[in-house]
C-alpha cells in the first residue's frame, strides 16, 4: 500500500506552494503598479511602443481575418515575418496576445497588462525554481518577488524589450521543468511545453540562454559521470533543438539578403562592466554601461538585489552539502557571465548585457537557497563587518560613477536601510539559533527574516520608481488610444511610403503621421514599419532605416525614372500614397511649394507633413508592376504568399515580368524561371514564347519550409514517444516496488 502520510505531506506542500504562488502573483502585480504612479507610460516605452504593440496588433488582425501571416508584401523589408522569427508565429501565448491587442481600444493599457502578466509568470517560475533547489517556501517567495524587480528586468525589459522579458519569464519555468524531469524523474511534458514556449517566442537571446543551461546540465552530469542524466538531457535538448530549427531556419537561410552583420567586434556597447557588477546590490547605482545614453546608464540597470551581501553569513562547511544541488545553476551562471562580457557584436548577436536578467536569476536563487539552508548558526562580528564593507564599497562606486546625477536623499535612505536590515539579520541569526519556542511561535520566528527581506525589497522598489521611473520616457511620447494611430492618412489609399524622419520635427506629430509599427493600425498599407532584419539592397536604394525613417532625398528618388523600364519608382513599388515629413533640410513651406507630380493630387497639408495621393490607384503591392515591352500580361489572383498573371503575348526573345515584391529567398515560379532581382531587390521572372496562354504564378514559402515542418512534427512526435516511454517505465517501477 502507498504511504498515506507521505501522500498527505505531498498534498499539503502542493497546497502551500499554490497559496504562496497566488499571494506572490498578487504582490508582483501590486509592485508592478508602483512605477505607474510616477510615470503612467512606464511600460509603453521605446521598442514596446515602436515595435511590439503594432506587431501584436497586426498579428491579431491577420489571425482574426483567417490568415496566419508568414509574409506581408506590403510591409516590404519588414514583411518577412517567418525570417524575423520574433513575431512568435508558432507560440500560442503570443498569438493570443495578438488577438487581444487587436481588439483593445487602449494601446497603453493593453501593453501594460501584457508586461505585468509576464512579470508574474517569471516571478512564480522563480519561486518554483527556488523550491526545486531546496529553498523553503518562505524564502522561495523572496526569490520570486526579487526577480521581476531586478534593474534590467524592470527598467529595460519590462519597459521596452518585451521579448527579452517574455523569454526570461518562460525560462524560469523551463529550468524548473528540466530539473523536475532530470533530477526528480517526473514527466517530460512540462519541460517540453515550457521549452517550446521559450523557443517559439523567436527571440534568439532566449534560445541562447536555453542552450547555455543545457551546457551547464551536461557539464555537471559529465563530471559526475551520470550517464542517465546525460541521455535524458540530450533527449529533451534534441526536442527543443527541432523546435528551434522550425523558428530560426528561415532567418538563417534568408541572411544573405538582409542587413544582419557577420562581423565580430567590440566597441564596449552594451557590454557588462566589472564596476557595474560590483554595484549590483546598490539600488541607486547608475554605473558604467555604454549604450544609447552615453558611457553611464541613467537607470539602475545592473541592480540585482539588496540582499546579496547575505552570502557572507553562509557557512562554508554547510554550503558544501548544497553543491550537488546548486552546481548546474552555478555553472550556468558562469556561462551567462561569459556571455554578458562577450564582444559587443558576434555576427547578428548584439548587446551582450541583455543576459543580465539571468545573472540576476542565478545570484538571487543561489543566495536565497544557501542562506536558507546553509547560513551560519552563530555568525561572528567579522561576517557583519564584511557585509557592511560590501555595502559601503558598492555605494562609493555608485557615487564615483555618476556623482552629479545621484538623488542623495534616496541614496541615504538606501544605505541606512541596507545597514539596519543587514545588522538585524546578523543579530537575529546570532541570537535565535538556539532558541527553544513553541511550535506556533517557532513558525512565526522563521518568518521574521523573510519578512524583513521583503520589506526592504519593497522600499528599494518605491525609491527606484520615484527616482527613475520618470526618466523612462519614449522619444516620441506615444499616445494611449489606438484610434490616434488611424488618423494620419484619411485621404490616403492603397500602399504608401513616408519620406523623412518624424522624430526630427522635435514636436508632437501624432494625428499627422505615425512612427514604427504604429503604421499597422492605419488603413493605408505603409511600408515604413519596424524590422530587426531588413533587406539590404532595398534599404540602400530607398535610404530606409530599420525603424522606418528615411532620407529626405527619397521624395525625388521615388519619382525618378527607372532606366530600364522607364517607369517611376513609385510605380514599381505599387505606391499610391506618399507623405513627406518636414525637416531642417526640407521645410514645410518648401514641401507646400513643390509641384505635385503628374497623375497625383495634393490630399493633405499639415503642420509637419504634406501628403500626395495617386489619382488613379495602381495595383497593390505583390502584383506584377511591369513587364518587358514585348510581353503582354493580365493580372490574376494576388495574396500575401502568391501572385498570378496570365501571359497573353511574348516576343521571340522572351521577356521579363517584375513584381512589386521583395525577392526574398523562398520564392518559386510556375511556368516561368526566376531572374536575378530587378534593381537588386524586386522579384522578377523570365518568360518565353512557349509560355503564351499560361498562368505564371510566383509563390512564397519560407526557405527550408519542408525541413521546418518536418522538424516541428518530429519534435512533437519525439516528445510524445518520450512521454509514453517514461510513463510506462514509471508504471513498471511502481509495480516492482515492495510498497506497491
Summarize the structure in words.
- With 740 residues, the chain is of the alpha+beta class.
- It is built from 23 helices and 18 strands.
- It folds into three domains: 12-42 and 106-378 and 385-471, no CATH class; 486-614, no CATH class; 624-700.
- The model has no long low-confidence stretch (mean pLDDT 94).
- Mean pLDDT, to the nearest integer, reads 94
Number of strands: 18
Rg over CA atoms, rounded to whole Å, is: 29 Å
Q: Alpha-carbon distance between the termini?
A: 5 Å
Largest sheet: 5 strands, mixed
Q: How much of the sequence is in beta strands?
A: 5-15%
Instruction: Domain count, please report it.
Output: 3
Biggest sheet: strands side by side, in what order? 7-6-8-10-9
In which range does the helix fraction lie? 40-55%
Shape: globular
Helical stretch count?
A: 23
Question: Which spans of ≥5 residues are poorly predicted at pLDDT below 50?
Answer: none
The helix/strand class is alpha+beta
